[in-house]
Amino acid sequence: MSGSLTFKVHRQKPELVFPAKPTPRELKLLSDIDDQQGLRFHIPTIFFYRHNPKAYSDPVAVIRRALAETLVYYYPFAGRLRDGGPNRKLAVDCTGEGVLFIEADADVTLVEFEEKDALKPPFPCFEELLFDVKGSSEVLNTPLMLMQVTRLKCGGFIFAVRINHVMSDAAGLSLFLKTMCDFARGYHAPTVAPVWERHLLNARAPLRVSHAHREYDEMPVTGTDNDSKEDNLVSRSFFFGHKEMSAIRRLLPPNLVNRSTVMETLTSFIWRYRTVAIQPDPNKDMRLIFIVSARSKLTTPPLSPGYYGNAFAFPVAIATARELTKKPLEFALRLAKEAKYSVTEEYMRSLADLMVTKGRPRFSSDGAYLVSDVRILANIDFGIWGKPVYGGIGRAGVVNFPGASCYVSAEKRNGERGIIVPVCLPEKAMQRFVKELEGVFSNFHIL
């Protein structure tokens, strides 16, 4: 069982991988969406690949070479972040210094990671599979990307990557990694050419904040649950397949089910039952931060398919704990949908303006549950090894904010596809959360 799994990782000395050809030396400004305070951290992802007996290539060599070729086109990633100007504006100094790369071997097999019948976070010894090189997780003047490829004794391998979030969101990272896949497969250029154009998401002149943007409310941070002081935080992942989603939909009126996506339905469900488990003060405002991509919303001008910057918003749904837990699930779902569909082109323009007028505030995390759909990362296919068995986030939570879940595409050994949702809660709250879910899924077994 992976929860108690321990193993040794033998790492080579970290090296810098440079672009395979000379690249321009220039200073490139980030957008006003990119360099907000809440994105100034490094975000890790991890991918597991099975052994292919027909594969004679060393994954470390293939990926290192593909990385060098990719950096020719994505050369800002080989640079360093600088404090570029007034109002804490960040810029990338395209120095060509390269990204950090670690070659490693582990005395463990892929099957040992599979708990019950699927790979799911939190993964044991995660810090060994993506080693935090001393000083590398600073925001300024350090490598913008860290990669580690760890060969497993079964012939499979683990590919882990960490990026400075101000550079890209999940869609942008996916573009970068898919270009690496292009080169690993022998292509001579990216299938989708990368585009910088960060000015397209800059603030307007004159500035005009036209939306409330309550996700950036200035609030004193207080505890969101009764147990946080005496309870240890624990992480656990939950699988939601066809049966689980059918059970959730039975809690909703049919007309609303037909007009709601899986993401909207599942998110409102977890938000509600997570709040039940936390047992906050009934009058406390509970927040759902629903990360929404704005790529399809921007039309004047549209973003290029190769745009790899951050292009999303943090719209928030707010309800008191009493409302959320006492009213039916339909209440939470309607709030979640309202927040999601509030993101328009004008919303994004207003958000960029807010970043400049308010000094790039961090989103409010008090009483908040943040969700992000990173299922796009399930398709990182280096060719000979096929798609990853698991591709996504390595654990619940981000930086110092445990109340975040990234939804990952998953497949059980029996072929059933679904979504894995990592959740982090105080121990007693987690016990209550599991019990609540078991009540809803009494006919099923949940991971």
From TrEMBL:
<dbReference type="InterPro" id="IPR023213">
    <property type="entry name" value="CAT-like_dom_sf"/>
</dbReference>
<dbReference type="InterPro" id="IPR050898">
    <property type="entry name" value="Plant_acyltransferase"/>
</dbReference>
<protein>
    <submittedName>
        <fullName>(Z)-3-hexen-1-ol acetyltransferase-like</fullName>
    </submittedName>
</protein>
<dbReference type="Pfam" id="PF02458">
    <property type="entry name" value="Transferase"/>
</dbReference>
<keyword id="KW-0808">Transferase</keyword>
<comment type="similarity">
    <text>Belongs to the plant acyltransferase family.</text>
</comment>
